[in-house]
């Protein structure tokens, strides 16, 4: 990919920090992700919750301490930055996220179980506060992706070291318990596969840079591939290959045709559905060809039940996280057939968006996703490599939500990753478009001589 030079005027550049090597506003979001991807799973690994749905309903002491404390620190630091005159940008993807999340908060008023909806809304508010607010106010030269990759690298290494322990996910088939995949320090093999696939994507991005970054990226990529195969997560493997290729195709086509990447991606997705309908080649058939199971391991049964419940409250839904895991009198228990009663969600983020917030909520979610892709497209004017990895990770999470529920799930690793990708793209929204030095005319270069020209080499800390 091309190497871009960054040309910034002295008025546009963020003030340099004279105290310390790190920007605290960049550290806070990375710390939030470190807790979700490393600290919390390791605590659960050492001190497991109760088995079954009861464990999912338990309120953990560490969460009640960590997230309020981190959110409070984020608010204090943000207030100090704003008091010093730093402006808080409002890119369209952040605005649409706030609107979508605002609807979730308003749904407490009509939720099936308002007390559950309110508590879970507050939890999500703390996570978003800890990630979005300080990241938007961080120094432009602070690299959130490097911090996130460091967490993935540590997690991948730990999970590889745990392989001899044989920590596996077991499923009951009849009277027998069957090992269905390695889970590492996570609570399930699909969570490990999801984590390893994201680690692989970020590792490939590191391979685009020379020196130690490339070497570390190669080692983590190798470990991630091993973990994906050991976890037997076919979805994670497929999307880890599909997402970066589709992101590359989208960005290259957009640049060649001088179109917004979001339009190119929309055409690609629409073409897939049209061709699939005409050829009778749907996702069920693809699943059968790849895995021999067109039901997506029973998910179609869950989706059929979800559709019946969506039809009961189609406009605004049952309330934010107020359908599954809300007690014995919940519709997910009283009306669900057989084993579906034991499900924690629909195993589809888009179905759950409709279940919780209706078609209005699904519309707000789609607007959020579209604006996020649009803002990522703007990153391409500054850094093509960064635009590619941001779009790759975003597409991975979007596609993964067709088989798992991740949207607005406060402590989920992939949701925190998606929020970080969203806010990382948003940090580029108001920067001036950059160009290659060779494309600048002599007159432009003479005018630009009064500006500071530095190579874009982002770090988690601030250059001093």
What does this protein structure show overall?
This protein is mainly alpha-helical and 464 residues long. It has one domain. The protein is 61% helix and 5% strand. The protein contains 17 helices and four strands. The strands form two sheets. The chain has a two-stranded antiparallel ribbon. It has a two-stranded antiparallel sheet with strand order 2-3. The longest helix has 31 residues. The two termini are 28 Å apart. The N terminus and C terminus are likely disordered.
Gyration radius, in Å: 23 Å
Low-confidence stretches: 1-21, 434-464
Largest sheet: 2 strands, antiparallel
Count of discrete alpha- or pi-helical segments spanning 4 or more residues: 17
Quick description:
The protein has 464 residues and is mainly alpha-helical. 61% of the residues lie in helices and 5% in strands. It has one domain (23-455).
Set down the secondary structure blueprint.
Elements: E1 5-8, H1 24-46, H2 53-57, H3 61-83, H4 92-106, H5 114-137, H6 144-161, E2 168-173, E3 176-182, H7 189-206, H8 212-231, H9 234-257, H10 261-279, H11 283-291, H12 299-312, H13 331-334, H14 349-379, H15 384-400, H16 413-426, H17 442-447, E4 452-455
Antiparallel strand pairs: 1-4, 2-3
């Amino acid at each position: 990919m091309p190497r871009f030079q960054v040309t910034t005027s002295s008025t546009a550049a963020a003030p340099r920090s004279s105290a310390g090597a790190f920007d605290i506003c960049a550290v806070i979001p990375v710390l939030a992700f470190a807790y979700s991807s490393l600290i919390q799973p390791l605590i659960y690994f050492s001190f497991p919750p109760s088995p079954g749905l009861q464990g999912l309903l338990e309120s953990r002491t560490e969460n009640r301490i960590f997230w309020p404390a981190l959110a409070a620190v984020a608010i204090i630091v943000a207030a100090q930055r704003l008091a010093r005159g730093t402006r808080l940008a409002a890119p369209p993807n952040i605005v649409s996220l706030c609107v979508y999340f605002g609807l979730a908060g308003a749904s407490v008023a009509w939720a099936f179980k308002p007390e559950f909806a309110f508590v879970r809304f507050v939890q999500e508010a703390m996570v978003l506060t800890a990630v979005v607010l300080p990241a938007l106010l961080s120094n432009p030269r602070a690299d959130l992706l490097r911090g996130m990759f460091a967490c993935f690298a540590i997690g991948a290494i730990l999970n590889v070291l745990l392989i001899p322990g044989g920590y596996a996910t077991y499923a009951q088939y009849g009277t027998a318990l069957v090992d269905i995949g390695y889970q590492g320090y996570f609570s399930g093999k699909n969570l490990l596969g999801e984590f390893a696939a994201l680690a692989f994507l970020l590792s490939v991005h590191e391979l685009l840079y020379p020196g130690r970054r490339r070497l570390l990226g190669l080692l983590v990529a190798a470990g991630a591939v091993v973990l994906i195969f050991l976890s037997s997560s076919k979805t994670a493997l497929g999307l880890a290959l599909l997402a970066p290729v589709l992101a590359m195709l989208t960005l290259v086509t957009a640049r060649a045709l001088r179109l917004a990447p979001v339009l190119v991606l929309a055409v690609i997705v629409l073409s897939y559905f049209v061709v699939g309908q005409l050829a009778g080649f749907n996702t069920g058939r693809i699943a059968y060809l790849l895995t021999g199971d067109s039901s997506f391991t029973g998910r179609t049964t869950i989706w059929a039940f979800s559709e019946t419940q969506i039809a009961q409250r189609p406009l605004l839904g049952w309330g934010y996280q107020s359908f599954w895991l809300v007690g014995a009198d919940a519709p997910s228990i009283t009306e669900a057939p057989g084993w579906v009663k034991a499900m924690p969600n629909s195993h589809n983020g888009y179905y759950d968006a409709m279940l919780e917030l209706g078609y209005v909520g699904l519309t707000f979610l789609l607007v959020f996703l579209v604006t996020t892709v649009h803002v990522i497209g703007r990153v391409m004017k500054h850094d093509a490599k960064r635009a590619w990895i941001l779009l790759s990770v975003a597409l991975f999470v979007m596609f993964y939500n067709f088989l798992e529920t991740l949207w607005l799930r406060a402590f989920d690793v992939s949701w925190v990753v998606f929020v970080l990708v969203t806010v990382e793209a948003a940090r580029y929204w108001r920067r001036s478009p950059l160009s290659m030095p060779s494309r600048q005319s002599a007159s432009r270069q003479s005018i630009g001589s009064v500006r500071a020209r530095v190579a874009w080499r982002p770090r988690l800390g601030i250059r001093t």
